[in-house]
Amino acid sequence: MEELVGLREGSSGNPVTLQELWGPCPRIRRRIGGGLEWLKQKLFRVGEDWYFLATLGVLMALISYTMSFTVGRVVRAHKWLYREIGDSHLLRYLSWTVYPMALVSFSSGFSQSITPFSGGSGIPELKTILSGVVLEDYLDIKNFGAKVVGLTCTLASGSTIFLGKVGPFVHLCVMIAAYLGRVRTKTIGESENKSKQNEMLVAAAAVGVATVFAAPFSGVLFSIEVMSSHFSVWDYWRGFFAATCGAFMFRLLAVFNSEQETITSLFKTSFRVDVPFDLPEIFFFVALGAICGVLSCAYLFCQRNFLIFVKTNPLTSKLLATSKPLYSALAALVLASITYPPGVGRFMASRHLDTLFDNNSWALITRNSSPPWPAEPDPQNLWFEWYHPRFTIFGTLAFFLVMKFWMLILATTIPMPAGYFMPIFIFGAAVGRLIGEALSVAFPEGIVAGGVTNPIMPGGYALAGAAAFSGAVTHTVSTALLAFELTGQIVHALPVLMAVLAANAIAQSCQPSFYDGTIIVKKLPYLPWIRGRKISSHRVIVEHFMNCSITTLAKDMPLEEVVKVITSTDKAEYPLEESTESQILVGTVRRAHLLQALQAEPPSWAPGHQVHYLQDILAGGCPMEPVTLQLSPETSLHEAHNLFELLNLQSLFVTSRGRAVGTVSWVELKKAISNVTNPPAPK
Amino acid sequence: MEELVGLREGSSGNPVTLQELWGPCPRIRRRIGGGLEWLKQKLFRVGEDWYFLATLGVLMALISYTMSFTVGRVVRAHKWLYREIGDSHLLRYLSWTVYPMALVSFSSGFSQSITPFSGGSGIPELKTILSGVVLEDYLDIKNFGAKVVGLTCTLASGSTIFLGKVGPFVHLCVMIAAYLGRVRTKTIGESENKSKQNEMLVAAAAVGVATVFAAPFSGVLFSIEVMSSHFSVWDYWRGFFAATCGAFMFRLLAVFNSEQETITSLFKTSFRVDVPFDLPEIFFFVALGAICGVLSCAYLFCQRNFLIFVKTNPLTSKLLATSKPLYSALAALVLASITYPPGVGRFMASRHLDTLFDNNSWALITRNSSPPWPAEPDPQNLWFEWYHPRFTIFGTLAFFLVMKFWMLILATTIPMPAGYFMPIFIFGAAVGRLIGEALSVAFPEGIVAGGVTNPIMPGGYALAGAAAFSGAVTHTVSTALLAFELTGQIVHALPVLMAVLAANAIAQSCQPSFYDGTIIVKKLPYLPWIRGRKISSHRVIVEHFMNCSITTLAKDMPLEEVVKVITSTDKAEYPLEESTESQILVGTVRRAHLLQALQAEPPSWAPGHQVHYLQDILAGGCPMEPVTLQLSPETSLHEAHNLFELLNLQSLFVTSRGRAVGTVSWVELKKAISNVTNPPAPK
Description:
Chains A, B: Its main location: membrane. The first copy, chain A, is mostly helical. Helices cover about 60% and strands about 5% of the residues of chain A.
């Protein structure tokens, strides 16, 4: 009997049905069932967020791959058209130029007609969003279609326009994450949580980078460096997870589509592993980094000023305001005319990144043999793409650099969805290649170190140049890691990292980054950094820069006065004081709630009604929110800045002995920081 | 005349000496001089911190290299002794065991005699220091010598004890950084700055990891993941800079010492680049990750409990309390006896990490040929080290794993400076190798995918296993990157990352990390995490858990009462209220300052003296410090936790309507978090 009771209750105390009792091994079966139940619970407890991130990664990989596939087809169609159109120069020229013009003007026209935000890379806007500023509608899902179609057209115009897809893709990814987050919140019915949302957006940005380059490590690190000034290790893990899902899916699709045999890097290299570079070459790598740093300053300066010029010049600004597609088409015409292959374009058409990472020295190969100018690019000899009998490798590389410099700047002014990272990366690779080839000619036998000589590999310099230049332009270090992930070799770890650091040292001390520059030009709200040793930021205190003109409500205020205050100002919330006399801050009231409560109340002059003061309304159900964090007038600028940056705050109240004496928002902080950095001239 | 005036004033307005005027090209020379001056100023303005970091990197590399060099010599001497001592078994056994016993007992005795903190890895203590807790003397420079000598002895006992150097090296590096920081503060005369100091310590931790592995990327990322829960991008750049200097110097020394031809990775591999693995193998990699995750849970569980057992068992705890060297010697005797080569040790002596990453399948090589048991290790055939005719590769690998599992746990209890990362890394590599070899036997032709078959490379699995196991034990993801930096190849990026994520998913949901476990066992103060979706932490508010029993002083308190309060409590600082009646918080007073002021004042009962109240003392010059940040009783646990974590706070005052109503420190927070995570059982 006791046995039966034991069975009936089971180890988990569940009652046992008769059927279970008669089946074979009821105990074991029950235990297995219990174990599965536990596992299910465990998975769902840990899960949810992780499922969300995995979905995001896979979804973005699908979009990225579909986009690449479509773009590939359109580009192939353009090539076919150009080849088949006959020998008439006019027809060929038209087929070469009209195609990208049509695509670009459609791209800018279509995306601008749906939403005015869709131009550019989107990373500067995301940066301000992640720093806590609310940009209305920027992450709305309705922008998604505009951005996808626009970006596809941009990419389909190919090497003529020479723009990439990282920036818009990050924006797309964040949009989807925000949308999925809203859907989830609605289905679960859980209250919206700001910090939770931000975590997801940071992870989404990582997915964006990772699915474009299939590079999870650098995807996460690059997005952290570009987007935020602080990050939590927890976010970093989530980013890794989502980025890995995305990158895996992206590469998997390539394998399933028989483009590749297995999941490897995008631009495989085959550098010597045993002695990839001789020790004295480290010096050249650092010098290359410095050169890239100086070039990046020049690029950033010209780019920013040209952008301002285009915005202020009467002709172009009018064109941009009234007919964006026309401006885009004109810019595309200029770019396409220059890349027209029978013209100047023969020196610069269809340059691929992987050719630049070739580990043979083209200068040495072509120096003695002087091979003929190839009619068609030969997949075996990568250098043919860059070779010209009269100008040599150096001529074509230098010409490429000079032309691309201004062409890139012109292309960035076109108001359409486009990424600016990849062209910069390729530009840097060309700089590195040029210097590498020069070194291989200067030291044809290699640099003697310890008896054994190894020829110089210009490909390594191209790698370092790409990482250093793109790192300097974006003010990031993780481009070094990106270079390794893209090529699958990490033998140049130290020299490339040193080049990137040298380039960053120069660029960061002279120019704002590409994204910060755009933020400045677009006049987006942002919080500047307080750089390292600005010790004076510890001496400036909140009292010096806070906004003292605050409109407060007091609990014992007559309702007429409250109405007067509300109608004369339009803040979203008002600080609430205990009484007009004591001025002790007790909380905040939202304007919306207050309006609702006031409208619900019959007017106070109605006969027989008691409500005369604000506290009556509050007692009647108008919600009051607590102030969870307060500054003192003595808080230093440094501390306040840290708080705002770390917690992504919008504004804080300053209280002195319990009284609200002012507020601080990023506007005041920004002003105070610029005063510390560039003290106003004494009058 | 005007020309002369122009010359005299110069463009910079400086007067010109006659000598300058007569030299060639005075203007140009002056301009060059001005340019140089500008550059110098620029370098020093940007500099300082960077020079500090570079010095730190170079210094640590020198120490690391010197240590490696010494250790190498001592190990070689031991080998020589063992070889030359003759054929007597007793003598050989003694020479094998006494050597490490002496080293280990000296290591623990010497380091413990100088400072009791020097045992273990030091990373758990650093973690608590960086979270804002002050551990007195832990970073004192006097511990430096003890730790260096102790660590050298530990490493010199070689493969017998099988411990690494990462942890203590990070501790050394942080010690030096703290010392250099104090020296700098003294010479410059600048006031101590807490946040500045912390920045340096974080960078120093990165240098520590980077100079041991010569791996700057993973050095920075690993130290971030292990040390902190939040990180600023600015610190991350500094870390990269310092780590690069350190890693460069470390590898440079190896080149100068003719050990290597150039600066490359420590354990070079030569995996196939074109098709490093077939797509279906991804599944095996993830499975390997899961296995490593489960194993790491077992390891962490056993290790923590054995540590507790050793501390609570009467015999061992007495031994550890009274004679640490004896305990160490006994443990070393056990370990050395097992690794004695003519005994069981023949299956496990002198295993090197690079052999495990060999890209040939040993099982396939040895399956058919059955080569004889080698007398001496052959540098050409790496697998000979792991081969035994009777037990095959699988037998030796499995035996190695089983034995090392408990030997490692035993070794971690020895109270001497030692790192526990490298042995775990090697253990993981062996796990991966075992599974890789099994797969290569199961699929001798490779896994068919798309017509072409490629043999399985067990080395890739060893790499994934090392990264996954060490990642799971330390709860980090960047071990994957470390594996790539150590081997110089990144072709396995995705599978290794997926294995590491799988291992981490299991380990993080079941066990605290190795370092957190040590923190728990050593009862160090720390702030636990609030994991992802613990949404309830938003609902718990400060009021529920704050410490309400605060001792306050009021300005209108009579001095007798102040003296009474001070003598009855011993807090470092007291909150100061406006008056006993209003209780409005106005600032804090330090006990030390108060004591000084009280002693300086003549007693209030002296005739003709006016001082009766605290406010008189304050007016007389006793400094009062402002409260720069206050919590409200309504602040949520989540917010408070974030604040403490982000700003490394010690304690905060809670004010309600200006009145101090309580304090929150990490003790209260920890209790509140544990209540949220494991709600107390209802009674």
